[in-house]
Amino acid sequence: MRTQVAIIGAGPAGLLLGQLLHKHGIANVIIERQSADYVLGRIRAGVLEQVTVDLMEELGIGQRMRQEGLVHDGVELMFKGARHRIDFPSLTGGKTVMVYGQTEVTRDLMAAREAAGLQTVYEVGDSVRLEGFDGGNPVVRYRRGGQEHVLECDFIAGCDGYHGVSRASVPKGAIREFEKVYPFGWLGLADVPPVSEELIYANTERGFALCSMRSPTRSRYYVQVPLEEKVEDWSDDAFWNELRLRLDPEARERLVTGPSIEKSIAPLRSFVAEPMRFGRLFLAGDAAHIVPPTGAKGLNLAASDVKYLSDALVEHYGERSAAGLDHYSERVLRRVWKAERFSWWFTSLMHKFPGEGEIAQKLQEAELDYLVSSKAASTAMAENYVGLPL
Ligand code: RFL
Ligand code: PHB
Questions:
Q1: Does the keyword Flavoprotein apply (predicted)?
Q2: How far apart are CA 9 and CA 157, in angstroms?
Q3: 6 close to 138: Cβ distance less than 8 angstroms
Q4: Are residues 223 and 366 in the same domain?
Q5: Are both 226 and 205 inside the same structural domain?
Q6: Catalytic: 193?
């Protein structure tokens, strides 16, 4: 089999890239480890920046998002037991974010891919091998249904997430990795009607909590827990009790509790691999970088990466110019590092760090007080949260 661009991974990065390339007549095949249902079963991101919303619209798949997504024009920051609102439009010249789950984005992209008759090979397990990307003829080898397959291509897009094969295929000496692992995780639980119309990010002496949502009837709540904690040790009741203790009196009163449909613990990490190009292999999304979820940036970075990559590939095939491809890594990393900085800053401001003592709490509260009372500080926060321009 032969294609122009072989895409590894059918997460948001891979699926978005596939549609962007297809729109410009560039053939692509996606190779995915899991089944489509498994990919759709993962509950992950919930907040889309305008840049991501615009990409969905550009691809003609914004209709359901427009109907079912929730436009949010602010978030609430809670500290010292009280909530303070950051208003996005007045601070950013009219910008907002869209609450529309990663599952729904993925579902819309899969449907569009199927309607366009584009090929996705699911359930290849750990069999993918990338070869020849340092020369002129890259190939992707994989096994499916007990048979070996070879996909020849011009380029490989590594969109296979943090644990994928693409970054791991690069010789160690050619890549630099920067990493920070936080000493806590997020225990997440879905779903009952949300406690508030906007997201609440809470800094408390007991640790961080986030009240988010997927729809007017589905909440998604998180509490900071020590890394060693096991999800089996958290009954739904224990979760609700802990969340209640981290909310202000009004939210505590309004909180609707019920059985969870999904409960899991996610570790928090900042990670960047440089560069993001190795000959004819390009990394995009979580394959190259991870942010802690506090800034809601992961999916949005995956989207902006593949926008840059598809522009570069369109330039290559259309104008026969390598300039876009040559500058891909440098251009993407400039935006990635700014999102890494924001996510690290917001994580550091909102979480309780073990062993840091009471002064750390006081300093966070002073910074939060400054953040909500200074227009300059609120503007910097709002500008980053709604997303920096491409
Ligand atoms: P994905 O989604 O991990 O997809 C990678 C795909 O590659 C497949 N794969 C392979 N395929 C073939 N061969 C192999 N060897 C393979 N290895 C892996 C995988 O099965 C998978 O289908 O990466 P992608 O596309 O780069 O997308 C990144 C986003 O998924 C991620 O950044 C976000 O979910 C992060 N994130 C959030 N991002 C936001 O923008 N806003 C949010 O509000 C937000 N909240 C979150 C989050 C992530 C979370 N968790 C659980 C990590 C909340 C949470 C709790
Ligand atoms: C979510 O709804 O899952 C979510 C929202 C905002 C974040 C992180 C996660 O910052």
A1: yes
A2: 9
A3: yes
A4: yes
A5: yes
A6: no
Start-end of H helices in 198-322:
236-245, 249-254, 298-319
**E strand residue ranges, the chain:** 5-8, 28-31, 47-48, 70-72, 74-79, 82-87, 97-99, 120-121, 129-131, 139-144, 147-152, 155-158, 176-190, 199-202, 209-215, 218-226, 262-274, 277-278, 281-283, 289-290
Spacing, Cα 347 to ligand 1 middle (Å): 19
CATH number of the domain residue 295 falls in: 3.50.50.60
Does 323 lie in the same domain as 221?
A: no
Specify whether 58 is located in the same domain as 93.
yes
pLDDT band at 64 (very low <50, low <70, confident <90, very high): very high
Q: What is the pLDDT of residues 175-208, one digit of tens each?
A: 999 999 999 999 998 778 899 999 999 999 999 9
> What is the domain extent for residue 300?
5-179+269-346
Q: Using the mean position of ligand 2's atoms as its centre, give its distance from the Cα of residue 195 in Å.
A: 15
Candidates 12, 194, 292, 293; catalytic one: 293
Give the total number of structural domains in the chain: 2
Find the mean pLDDT for residues 247-275.
Answer: 93
3-state DSSP helix/strand/coil % of the chain, to nearest 5: 40, 25, 30
| Token code pair at residue 318 | 């259309």
* Annotated catalytic residue 293: yes
Measuring CA to CA, how many Å separate 85 from each of 98, 339, 364?
Answer: 17, 22, 17
277 and 149 assigned to the same domain: yes
Segment 316-322 long-range contacts (CB within 8 Å, at least 24 positions apart):
317/4, 317/24, 317/26, 318/24
User: What percent of the chain stands above pLDDT 90?
Assistant: 93
Question: Considering only CA atoms, which residue is closest to atom 17 of ligand 1?
Answer: 164
CATH number of the domain enclosing 359: 3.30.9.10
214/355 same-domain check: yes
Q: For residue 342, give the DSSP letter.
A: H
Q: Tell me whether residue 201 is one of the annotated catalytic residues.
A: yes
Query: Do residues 193 and 239 share a domain?
Result: yes
**Using one digit for the tens of pLDDT, what is the confidence trace for 104-161?**
999 999 999 999 999 999 999 999 999 999 999 999 999 998 999 999 999 999 999 9
Assigned token pair, 21:
């390339």
Task: Report the predicted TM-score, pTM, of the whole model to 2 decimal places.
Answer: 0.96
Tokens of 55: 């990409």
